[in-house]
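Can you give me the bound-state structure? Components:
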Amino acid sequence: MRYAMAIDTLKCVGCSDCVVACQTENNVPIGYCRDWIVEAVDGTYPQLEIELRSERCNHCDNSPCVRACPTGASHYKEGGIVAVYHNECIGCGACIQSCPYDARYSHPEGYVDKCTFCYHRVEKGQKPACVSVCPTNCMYFGDLDDENSDVSRMLKTRKYKVLAPEAGTKPMVYYLI
Amino acid sequence: MATNRRDFIKISALGAGALAITKPVFGWLPDFMKNKEPMDDSKAKRFPTYCEICFWKCAGWAYTNEQGELWKIEGNEDDLHSNGRFCPRGTGGVGMYYDDDRLKTPLIRETVDGVQRYRKASWDEALSFIAKRMQEISDKWGPESIALFSHGSGGTYFGHLLKAFGSASITAPSYAQCRGPREVAFNVTFGSQLGSPEPLDIRDTQCLVLIGSHLGENMHNGQVQEMSQAIDKGATIITVDPRFSTAASKSKYWLPIKPATDIALLLAWIHVIIYEELYDKEYVEQNTIGFEQLKAHVKNNTPEWAYGITTIKPDLIRKSAYEMAKASPSVIVHPGRHVTWYGDDTQRMRGVAILNALLGAWGRRGGFYIPEKFKLPKFPGPKYPKPKKTKSDAHQGKYNLADTFLSNGICEASTINIERDFTYKAWFINGTNLIETLPDKKLTEAALNQLELVVVIDTMPMAITGYADVVLPECTYLERYDEIRVSPHRIPQMALRMPAAEPRWDCKPAEWMARQLAHKVGLSEYFNYESHEELLDWQLRQVGSSLEEMKVVGVKSFDREFDDLYFREGEVPQFNTNSGKIELYSTELEREGFDPMPVYTKHPEPPAGFYRLIYGRAPMHTFSRTANNPNLTDLMDENKIWINPKVAKQWGLKNEQPIWLENQDGVVSSFPIKVRVTERIRWDSVYMVHGFGHSNKQLTRAYGRGASDTQMITNVMVDPIMGGTGMRGNFVTFHVEKPSSKEEVAL
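Here's the bound-state model for the whole set.
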C-alpha cells in the first residue's frame, strides 16, 4: 500500500476550492492552510503560459521532516502517509525548517500541523476532501501499489513531474503536465 | 526567524505568487473548530440545501456536528448543477453563517437632535412601520409605485407580496446590468432565451469558443466542470480576451483582442465561415432566414479588415474559424453572462448567436441542448390584481424588447421629473447591494433620497443598508427553507433547501417577513398557510413527493416529458421567432428600428495616460456579497490592479505598491489598491476583480480592502435595444499618493 496523489495542471483553474474544503473538513483555523494554490506565469504578452497547481505535503518516502523530529511526533502511517501526533509535538519547528515544500505550519494551539491526505476519510474508503470537492476533477488519489487505481492509471498514461526532485525526498504528489 | 516560512515563499515568488495566508483571525471560530482532531462524520447530521452564494444554486448537504453546530457543506451527487462538487464559494458558505458582522436585529431610521441613526426595533414594530407606510403610499400614489429589486431567493416572497398588493415592478440587476443583451439577442435569433444555467452542451463539445467569458475565474460550477471534461476529451478551446485569463491558458488559440472591438472579430469570423463555405449548409438552408442578406452584409468584413481594428492577425482569425467549422455542429460560441459592456451589446450578442446558427450548433449535441424544467404547481390563492402601470410606463415606451422591468429603468423613474407622470415612491431591496450593483452611483443616490420608503432585506450590513428606512435582517440560506429549486437542465430536477441550523440572533427568513407583512396589509388570503413547511409539502405532494422524502434525498430527478435533448434527425424544428425560423436577419430588430444585422462601430479609446478599466470575477468571490465571508476572505481579501510590466515601468510602479485610481470624470477611488505587475494584461488596459473596496466599516474584513470598480464606472453606455448599462467605457489613471484635491492631481 502506497498512497499518492496526481494533480492535472492542464485542468486546474486555481479556484482554491481544495483549500477551503480542507479548512472546513479538518477544522484548520482561518488564516492557516494545509494546501494552497501556486500560479506560475511564464513569457511575455502575448506569448504566455500559466501553470496552476494545488500544493500540499508530498508525503515523501524519504521525509526530512520525520528525520528532523526530535520527539517522534512526526511519523509514517499506513500507506506512507506522513502525520504528526499533536500531543507528542513540542512545537519546536525543526520539521518546518527541514521541509523543502514548506508544507507545515505552526498551529496556534502550539503544535505543528499539515496535510494528512485526510487519513480519517481514506481509512473509511473516502477520498481526501480536496480531491472529492475539486470542480475540475483534476486531482486523483489512490494506491500506487494497485495498478488499477486512479493515480496509477494517470501516471501510466500521462507525462508528469514532481516538485524539488533534487531534494531527494521521493515525493508522492505528482503533477500531470 | 519565524518558524512559518510560507509567507516568505508566497511573497518572493513574483509572477508565481500563491495565495497570501498571513492573517490569523481566530475569534469568530466556534469552539469545536479548535479541535485538534478531525470531526467524526458518523456523529454528524446532514441537511439538504442549495447554495445561495451565487445564482448557480448548486444542491448539496450542510453538515452539523454532535452539538448541532454547522460544520461543512458538500455537494449532492445527484445534482446536475454541481455533480456533488461545490465550488470554493459554496464550500466556504459556512463563513456566511458564522460571520459575526451579520445584521442581527430589525433597524428603523430615526432622527435625534438632527442626527440620523438606526435604532433596534422588534419585528412587530418594524413590520408595522413598513405596512403603515405601504398603505399611505398606496393611498396617495397607487400600489404600483412600490418596486422590488431582488437578487436572491427571498425575493420570490416579497415579489408575491407586491404582486398581491398591486405592483408588477419587480426587477433584478442580473438583467440590465448583466445578461439581458444576450437574452434579447438569442430571443430574436432563435426565439428562445438562454436563462440559467445556460443550456450549453460543453461536456460533449469539440470546440468551445469563449468571447467575453472567463470560465474558471467565474465559477459557474456546472460549466467549469464540463469544460474540464471537454479538456479530457481533447476539445479545442479558443479564448478571446485582452487579458490572459485562466481559460486562455487552457486554450489552443488565444486571441488577445483590443478591447471594444469584438463585433469586428465576430463579423470577420462570420465572413470566413460564409465565404469559405464552412457553414452547416443543410441546417442553414432548412432552419434560417436572411442568409443572402447576411452574406452581402459581411462581404467586406475580411480578416484583413478586422486586423486593423482588433489587432488580431488575419491568420489567427482564419485558423480559429477553421477550428470551429471542423467541430461543427459540436461547437459552442459561448454567450457569456455579464455582457453589458459598450452599449451595443445586444448587437454583439447577435453576432455570437448568428455564428452559432451558421455552425449549426443550436439544438445539436456538443452545441446547445434543449433544456427541460420541472413544473411545480403554485399554492392555491386568489389571482393578483391587474397592475395599473407596466414596464412601458417605467421605461417611457423605450426598450420594448426587454421582457422585464429594468433596474436602471426603475431607478431613473424614481427620480422626480416633470416630464414623466409616474414616479416610484418606495423600494424593497433584497439581497442586492444596489449601490455597488447599479452603475452611476449619483443617480442611485438621487433616487434613494427622493423615495418615501426604502426597505432593505439582507444578511449583511452592505452599503445599501445605510440608505434604508427599515433594515430587516434575513437569516442565511443555511437557516431557512426557500422555494423548491426547479431550474432547467438536461433532465427536470427539483431540490430542497431546509434549515441546517437555527437562525442566529433575531434573523428571520424572507418568506416569514413577507407573510407577516401580508397579514398587516390585509392580504392574508395570498398567504393562506400556517408554516413554510406546509406550503412546500403541499406543492411536493401534488407531484408525488413530500417534504419528508425531499429531506432525505435533497434532489429528485424526473424523466423528460417534452422534446428530445437535441433536434432529431430529419426534424424540421419550429422556432418562436416572427418567421418561425432562426433569424440571421432579424425582422424583430428591424421592426423596432434597429440594425437587423450587427454593425461594427468604433468606441472611444483611453486618452494618453489613461487605461481601459476591465473588471471580472475571482473564483472564490461572488460580486461584493462574499467580500466579508471569513472563509473566503481568507482565500482572497482584496483585489489588485493588474498592470502590464511596460506600463508599470513607465510609471515606476512596483508589485504590491498601493495606488489610487482616478477615472476620466475625475472620480478618485476611496481606497488605494495594490499593484499586480503582470504580463497577463494588455498595455492599453488594466484589470481588477469586482466587489471590493467596501466603504461600510461594519464589514470588518471587507472595509477599505482594495478598490471598487463600480466607483470608477461613471460613464454608462445604455443599449438602445434593451436598456442594458454598458460599463466598459471607463478609463483610469494612477496616483502613487492620495490626491488631496482636484488641482493637485492634474497630470
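A couple of observations. The helical segments of chain A are 17-25, 64-68, 94-98, 119-122, 129-133, 150-157. The beta strands of chain A are 3-8, 36-44, 47-55, 74-76, 82-84, 105-106, 112-113, 139-143, 160-161, 173-176.
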